[in-house]
Amino acid sequence: MKSMSNVDIYTICQELNDSLVGARVDKSFQPTKDTVVMRFHKAGVGRLDLVIQAGKRIHISQYPLTNPQNPPNFPMLLRKRLKGANVVSIKQHNFDRVVEIKMKKEETYTLIVELFAKGNIILLNEANEIILPLKRKHWSDRDISSKKEYLFPQEHGINPITLTIEEFKEIISNGEDEEIVRILAKNGLGSLYAEEIMLVAEITKKANCSNLSGEEIITIFNALKTVFEPLDEKKFSPMIVNNKKEVEKLQEENPDEKYKAKEDVISINIKQYKGFDKESFKSFNEACDEFYSSKVKNEITDIQESAWNKKVNKFSKRLEKQEKTLKNFKKTIEDSQKKGELLFTNYVQIENILNVIKDAREKDYGWKDIGQRLKDAKKSGMEDVQIFESMDPLGNISLKIDEAIIRLDSKKSIPDNAEVYYEKAKKAKRKIKGALIAIENTKHQLAEMEAKKEKAMLNIMVPQKRTKKNLKWYEKLRWFVSTEGILVVCGRDATTNEGVVKKYLEQNDVYLHADIHGAPSVVAKVQSDKLNDNLLKELGEFSAAFSSAWSKNFTSQDVYWVEPEQVSKTPVSGEFVPKGAFIIRGHRNYIRGCKLEISIGLVDYDGEKRIMAGPTDAMKTHTNKFVTIKPGYTKKEKIAKEILSRINEDNKLSLDDVVRVLPSGKCDFI
Predict the structure, then answer these.
(1) How far is residue 263's CA from residue 266's CA, in Å, rounded to a whole number?
(2) C-beta separation of 42 from 22 below 8 A
(3) Which residue range(s) make up the domain with 261?
(4) Same structural domain for residues 122 and 46?
(5) φ, ψ for residue 37, nearest 5 deg
(6) Residue 575 burial by CB count (10 A; 0-12/13-18/19+): exposed, middle or buried?
(7) Which residues form a coiled coil (predicted)?
């Protein structure tokens, strides 16, 4: 994966400064070893995910990466220090591959993003001291460790926007006998833009600096200014370019030659990519997101597939070994039975050999001598010993009959030797049954693992692009539709709690609240005289589920309801009513022991499929595909992934959609 150039970083910082300044820091994650995702919220825009990959890239992304179950120390520190901070500025340091992000909370923090070499991400305090780096590094002139002063890397690049002709001439004079294209590249412009400058200047890129005339130096300087003029004027042309089709055409014309396809993301149009296929984007952030996210998808795919292949191959190799063992058992049975039968088929001939050996042993001949005499007899043409092959020092002989080698103990009779082979066949038969059971078990385990791999790859390997949905007003709150078709909504936080009452509580509605500190205001669009036991049960369960009783792991919770006129924001003299809270005056009608459980599913409502979290009875009325959860011990993200895999019809939902409707706190399935 290509690293962002100085030019890329200049462009991206211009856009990030416009889009993120004033945004509030929300959460931080570390999906991979070198990648940190910072989530921001900006008024009027909503969620913005900034992906930072040390040494590679920085841009806003619509492709959320899978976050680890146990976050590392670095993102946890970012959450602790930066959550709630506001972005003050984002800038490139000296046209180098270093980005400074300033954020203000009680104090001002600076996040340094180093995009050169292997890169780093470093959090600094107001005194420019390192709070924590993503990676600790040490050089002779720089120490990237906690509590050390942060020093920027030595400047070695040029800023083409502010560069003067005098500064340029000095750079050329210092180049001596080096090629001009190398000098430009080494001074922060990189090979791509160094070659582009020489292409525009129409001077050979291999010209030595010392051989350039004054006129040529001015021509190259003017070409440099022409190439980077769009940066100075902020007239960017974000695009992804590739020459894949051209390469395929060349390959067809010259199949013996090897051609390499090139793909790149750029912010200004350049001559070198003339003839390349181009895909334009509204912003450089969007172009980078599509370019880098496609590369990341492939990397994630390869890593995940490799990991799962190891698990699958474990069972494949076991199955292969077991099937080979079964084959050997069958061969052993066949060979052993055949050898036992051959002993009886050639009984007389074998018995003559055994008698010769017996007589020789009685005359005190050694096994070696007997074996040699039998070999000599075979050479002389004696018919009975033509099947003899060899004899070992223990008196065991080898016979070759019908191409089969049969080993016998010459001290035993033919029936006893045959019994050895028959017993061997019986033993192998007994083992076949166990081998077949083992093979079936392994096949089942292999099929299960392949199914798990397929499911995991679908969920993990390709991050789905997050698209902003046009939510109905009630979808921005918590909501459900009762068995009888009554819409019920409640607040998600203090701000929406305030809005639920002020905007949506009308005279003919009912107000509900769980009888516990930390519960939302619930509005049911129904008159109180229309309430019945089943509806009250559903309203109570909904109100209880989204209260703090869930995170406290309660199994039930009391809920009360009142008329709209009983709900007031006016406190008694001397009292204060915080944001999202209300004063209830008069009699409260209680719904006792409301069960804490909630069901999540896709329902047809208001002309469209929507994800809904509501009481189980209500869910059963609107869909037959849902899951039910209760307070538990599993993290929301893990539960959400499983819910998504169970209810995601036609791939309409994202993980964020599911997380958004879950109660606050850990959960378990019922």
Answers:
(1) 10
(2) yes
(3) 239-280
(4) yes
(5) -115, 125
(6) exposed
(7) 312-339, 425-459
